[in-house]
Design goal:
Elements (H helix, E strand, L loop, with lengths): L1 E14 L2 E6 L2 E7 L6 H13 L3 E2 L5 E3 L1 H5 L6 E6 L21 H18 L3 E3 L7 E15 L6
Parallel strand pairs: 3-6, 6-7
Antiparallel strand pairs: 1-2, 1-3, 1-8, 4-5
Helix pairs in contact: 1-3
Length: 155
């Protein structure tokens, strides 16, 4: 799975002018399932997202995770947004190819799984809507933007 994490002061997703998901301080996570991904990749991605230490501690060092924020009197939100374009291959010309993205039915299944697992593991989770025309609004904090890829485990 591919994701792009953005540390935000706030973020929201709108569809047709209606807010469908919003958070205050936390992480906006754009996520794409790739061909061959399973629940195992989604689980590893979620574990990394929740534990990645990219929030400042009292000394100003990136030493806190989104989970650590909750214990500091500030709830750290996670906003998950599906974005198949993260799988873009631009090596073959000027039109990106998305053949590495999971098929839509499988991508939806893995995205829904990831959202459900995140809601079970973290107190504040919001989401966009798979395959919808979404407008994503955010105030990037820092800015801190981190690409994160979780490849299928090799047996």
């Amino acid at each position: 799975m591919i994701s792009l994490l953005q540390r935000v002061r706030q973020a929201r997703v709108e569809i047709a002018g209606e807010v469908v998901g919003a958070i205050g301080p936390g992480l906006l996570v754009l996520v794409c399932a790739e061909r061959g991904d399973t629940e195992a990749e989604a689980d590893r991605l979620l574990a990394k997202v929740l534990k990645l230490r990219i929030f400042s501690d009292d000394a100003g060092k990136m030493n806190r995770s989104v989970q650590d924020l909750d214990g500091q009197g500030m709830a750290g939100g996670v906003l998950l947004v599906s974005q198949f374009t993260l799988a873009a291959d631009t090596t073959g010309g000027n039109r990106p190819s998305f053949t590495q993205a999971a098929a839509p039915q499988e991508g939806r299944r893995l995205y829904d799984y990831l959202v459900a697992q995140a809601r079970a593991a973290h107190p504040q989770v919001a989401s966009g809507q798979f395959a919808a025309d979404m407008q994503v609004h955010l105030v990037n904090d820092g800015p801190v933007t981190i690409p994160l890829r979780v490849a299928p485990a090799v047996s």
